[in-house]
Specification:
single chain, Translation Initiation Factor IF3, five-stranded mixed sheet, three-stranded parallel sheet, 13 helices, 14 strands, elongated
Length: about 350
C-alpha cells in the first residue's frame, strides 16, 4: 500500500510537470507524455504536500488554468471555472516538482567493460551519453528542474536543453553545467586537462558564451586554476560547484566556491597524511577522515575556521554551513548541529535540518 501511495505521488507530480507543455505546441515525441490536454482543469480530492514543512492536507482541490496553479484548498472554497475539466483523484498525492541538484545526462556503467587486467586503456575512460533516456526518466521520477553538474558531451547537453525549452521533447528544465574544469592527469577521455589559470578563464568564458549556466571543478584542478574559475564564473553571475580532491574543502571555501559535492568523507582531503598541494591523493579523503575523532580539535564544533581571521568575524552563513555539513556526515546525531546551524542560518533552519537527525 505504501508503494502504491508513492507511485501516486510521482504520477501526480509528472502530470503537473506536463501542464505547461500541454498548452503549447506538441511535437509527436512530447504528446505521448501528456496526460491532460485541456487549458483548465481541477484535481479533486487529492492529498497535498506543499514542500514547506507544513502537515499534508487531505481532500484538497487543485485548480490549474493555462499552465499555472490558481488555487489549492478545500473544494467548497474553490472558485472553479465553469469550463474546467474535473478529475477526481482520491488516493493520489500532489507534490511540487522535484529540483535535482546533482544529475547527469550520461551513465557510467560502461566502466566495467573498459578495464583490462585492472587498467584502463588509452585514451582513457569513455562515458556513454544517454540524451534520449535520461530526461524522460528524470521527469518520470518527478524531477521538473535539474542541474547536470558536469558535462562530458556539452553540445549534446545544450541541444537537449534547447529542445526541452522549445517543447520539442519531454524533460525537466535544465541548468546546463559546462564541461568539467579538470586538471591533469584525468582518467576520462572526454575531459579537457587544464594547462593553467589562463586556460581555466578561457573555458569559463567560452562556455558562458555557448549557453552553459553553471560550472563544476573536478578532482585534479589546482588552487590557482580554481580561484580564477570561481572569479570568472561569478563575473558572469553564474555558480561553480566542485567534486574535489586535489584542493581541500577549506581551501575551496576560502577561494569562494559556491557549493561542494558528494560529502566530505569522500571528497575532502584536508586530513590526508602528507597531502601534497594541488595533488589528489589515492583514495580521496576517506583515509584521513577515518582516523578523525569526531570530538577532536580538528573537527571541533563550531570550528575555529568558521571565524574570519579579520577581527574574528563570522564567515558568511553558506561557508559556515559547509563546515556544518562536514561534521554532520561523520557524526549525524550530534545535537550541537541543530543549535549551531539554527544560530547561523535561522531563516531557513527547518529546511536545512530536515532529515539530519
Amino acid at each position: 500500500m505504501r508503494g502504491l501511495r508513492c507511485v501516486s505521488c510521482l504520477i501526480a507530480s509528472v502530470l503537473l510537470a506536463a501542464i505547461t507543455v500541454a498548452q503549447t505546441q506538441k511535437a509527436s515525441g512530447v504528446a505521448d507524455f501528456i496526460s491532460v490536454d485541456t487549458p483548465v482543469f481541477v484535481l479533486a480530492h487529492v492529498r497535498v504536500i506543499d514542500g514547506t514543512g507544513t502537515p499534508a492536507k487531505e481532500d484538497q482541490a487543485v485548480v490549474i488554468a493555462n499552465g499555472k496553479i490558481q488555487f489549492i484548498g478545500p473544494e467548497e472554497s474553490a472558485q472553479i471555472p465553469s469550463d474546467a475539466q474535473r478529475m477526481g483523484r482520491p488516493g493520489y498525492t500532489v507534490i511540487p516538482g522535484l529540483v535535482g541538484m546533482h544529475n547527469h545526462l550520461y551513465y557510467t556503467d560502461s566502466y566495467t567493460v573498459q578495464v583490462v587486467e585492472g587498467k584502463l586503456g588509452e585514451p582513457g575512460l569513455f562515458i556513454a551519453e544517454i540524451p534520449y533516456t535520461a530526461p524522460r526518466l528524470y521527469l518520470a521520477a518527478g524531477v521538473t528542474t535539474m542541474r547536470t553538474t558536469g558535462s562530458l558531451e556539452p553540445y549534446t547537453d545544450l541541444k537537449v536543453k534547447s529542445r526541452i525549452d522549445a517543447n520539442l521533447m519531454p524533460g525537466p528544465s535544465i541548468d546546463a553545467t559546462a564541461p568539467y574544469l579538470e586538471g591533469a592527469p584525468t582518467r576520462f577521455a572526454q575531459m579537457h586537462e587544464l594547462t593553467g589559470p589562463d586556460d581555466a578563464k578561457r573555458m569559463v568564458d567560452y562556455w558562458a558564451a555557448e549557453g552553459m549556466t553553471s560550472y563544476k571543478a573536478y578532482m585534479n584542478i589546482t588552487r590557482e586554476e580554481l580561484s580564477v574559475a570561481i572569479q570568472q564564473a561569478q563575473a558572469h553571475k553564474l555558480k561553480l560547484t566542485g567534486h574535489l580532491c586535489s584542493v581541500t574543502w577549506p581551501e575551496a571555501v576560502a577561494l569562494g566556491i559556491d557549493d561542494l559535492e558528494h560529502g566530505p568523507v569522500f571528497t575532502d582531503t584536508e586530513f590526508v597524511a602528507d597531502k601534497k598541494p594541488d595533488v589528489c591523493p589515492p583514495g580521496g579523503g576517506r583515509s584521513g577522515w577515518a582516523k578523525q575523532d569526531v570530538n577532536g580539535a580538528q573537527v571541533e564544533f563550531p570550528p575555529k575556521s568558521a571565524l574570519s581571521p579579520r577581527a574574528g568575524r563570522p564567515l558568511r552563513p553558506e561557508k559556515q554551513y559547509a563546515r556544518v555539513r562536514l561534521r554532520q556526515q561523520i557524526h549525524p546525531r550530534d545535537p550541537k548541529i541543530k543549535e549551531f546551524t539554527c544560530a547561523i542560518v535561522s531563516p531557513v533552519c527547518d529546511e536545512l535540518l530536515r532529515g539530519f537527525a
